[in-house]
UniProtKB/TrEMBL annotation:
Gene3D superfamilies associated with the record: Cupredoxins - blue copper proteins
Matching InterPro entries: Cu-oxidase-like_N, Cu-oxidase_fam, Cupredoxin, CuRO_1_LCC
PANTHER family associated with the record: LACCASE-7 (PTHR11709:SF9), MULTI-COPPER OXIDASE (PTHR11709)
Pfam families, per the entry: Cu-oxidase_3 (PF07732)
Name of the protein in question: Plastocyanin-like domain-containing protein
Ranges for domain Plastocyanin-like: 32-146
Family (UniProt): Belongs to the multicopper oxidase family.
GO molecular function, a single term: copper ion binding
Signal peptide: 1-23
Keyword terms, alphabetized: Signal
Amino acid sequence: MARLEFAITCALTLLALSSVASAAIVEHTFQVKNLTVSKLCHRQVITAVNGSLPGPTIRVKEGDTLHVHVVNESPYNVTIHWHGVFQLMSGWADGPSYMTQCPIRPGSSYTYRFTITKQEGTLWWHAHVSWLRATVYGALVIRPRSGHKYPFPKPHREVPILLDARSPSLE
Ligand SMILES: *[C@@H]1O[C@H](CO)[C@@H](O)[C@H](O)[C@H]1NC(C)=O
Ligand SMILES: *[C@@H]1O[C@H](CO)[C@@H](O)[C@H](O)[C@H]1NC(C)=O
Ligand SMILES: *[C@@H]1O[C@H](CO)[C@@H](O)[C@H](O)[C@H]1NC(C)=O
C-alpha cells in the first residue's frame, strides 16, 4: 500500500513538473524616456518606451510568467497597466497609479511580475498615470500554451493594430 502511495506521489510530482516545464518566465526591460518625434513638420518631445512608438510588442504563451523591469528615465511619474490581464493572485501588478501602487518616480524602477492564466489573444499595455498613456503603450500577444488550441479559430495571419490618440484632451 505504501509503495502504491509512493508511486502515485511520484506520478503526481512528475505531472506537476511537466506542466511547470511548459510555462516559461519571460523577461523584458522597458526604458521609459523622452523621444523626439516629427509629425507634419512639427517636432515634439514625447515619453515612450525604448525609443519607439508604439512601444515593444510582448509575446507570451498562456501559463507564462512575465517579469517586466520598468526603468523610468522620463521626467514624469509612471506606472504600466496590463490591460485585460486577469491578474489572478497578483492584483498588485495591475498598474493603476494610486490604486495598486505608488507611481514609479523619475530615476526609479519597478518590476511587474504576474502569470498569464486562462486567456489567449491580443491585449495591450499602457501607462496608467495622467496623460502618459497617449504615448506609452504597446501590444501584448498571448498564444496558447504548447499543445493547446486557440479558443477561437486559429488566425490565418496576425497583424496587431494599435490606434494612437495623442491628445491630452482625450483623457
Ligand atoms: C528595451 O531597451 C533595453 C535597453 O536598451 C533593452 O535591454 C531591452 O531589451 C529592450 N526591451 C525590449 C522589450 O525590447
Ligand atoms: C525630456 O523632455 C522634457 C520635456 O520636454 C524636458 O523638460 C527634459 O529636460 C527632457 N529630459 C531629458 C533627459 O532630455
Ligand atoms: C510621484 O509619485 C510619488 C509617489 O511615488 C508621489 O509622492 C509624488 O507626489 C508624485 N509626483 C507627482 C508630480 O505626481
